[in-house]
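Morning run. Coffee first, then this:
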Amino acid sequence: MLVTMKEILKDAKEKKYAVGAFNVPNLESIQAVISAAEELQIPVIIQHAEVHENLISLQEIGPIMLDYAKRASVPVCVHLDHGASFDMCIQAIRLGFTSIMYDASAKSYEENFEETKEVVKIAHAAGVSVEAELGHIFTSSVGGGEGRGAVGAEDFASLDDCYTDPVTAKNFVEGTGVDALAISFGTTHGVYLTEPKLDLNRITEIKNEIDIPFVMHGGSGVSDEDFKTAIHNGITKINYYTYGAMAGGNKIKEMIENNENEKVFFHDLIAAGKEGIKEDVKKAMTVFADSIL
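And here it is:
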């Protein structure tokens, strides 16, 4: 069933679990994620990232996402991920998306605040939930396909300059009216090249200032233990894409290697890739929703 992000995250916040939010740039990804959620009987968020417009357009994939969400046996939110343009956000709302992320985190705080506030007014008038981002999520040079450009710790004088400040977060949330806030505490978009150094206490510090659903971007590559601590501290939505996409690719690679002297059909490769994504997504969901499974 199709629901808003606000509805899904309210339940997650109350029951202390996190909803997995998965980018689905093709039909098979949608099928894999919905199927995994239905098997586990847990809510899920499927997302289209603006940076994936080079793979498939919002106009093409959006109606398919919405159709699968409406027919699912579990609550499904259809979300625009990292919408960096006003036009893209309006397109998603008009298509029927129940949630959007307006990402102006690369701009000045003042611009992020004012632009997000305006988007919230429009989205809420249409019954659509809004996520925003405050701080800077690092982006790996390998597979960092969801963020707004490569940002590394070396781009800042200190980590405090890129991590989300608790008091600033309170002012931002109260002034803009966003339903969820993506916060920075050391995670990375893409493949982890080194072990992440997460400031998990920062989540608690921010929650002490403003108690709304918090979002972890760059969820791939984080240990199960760190995921659980982050969820305990206040994370209720976890974005996950890179490692799931890699799992699908590895399954296809394995099939080709195992059938070296046999004919390989395209539809069989697609089926194998979908199964690889589903297996990885299901493992991630099991960690995120551990408290309700």
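Strands lie at 19-23, 44-49, 76-83, 99-102, 129-134, 138-139, 180-183, 188-189, 214-216, 235-240. Good start to the day.
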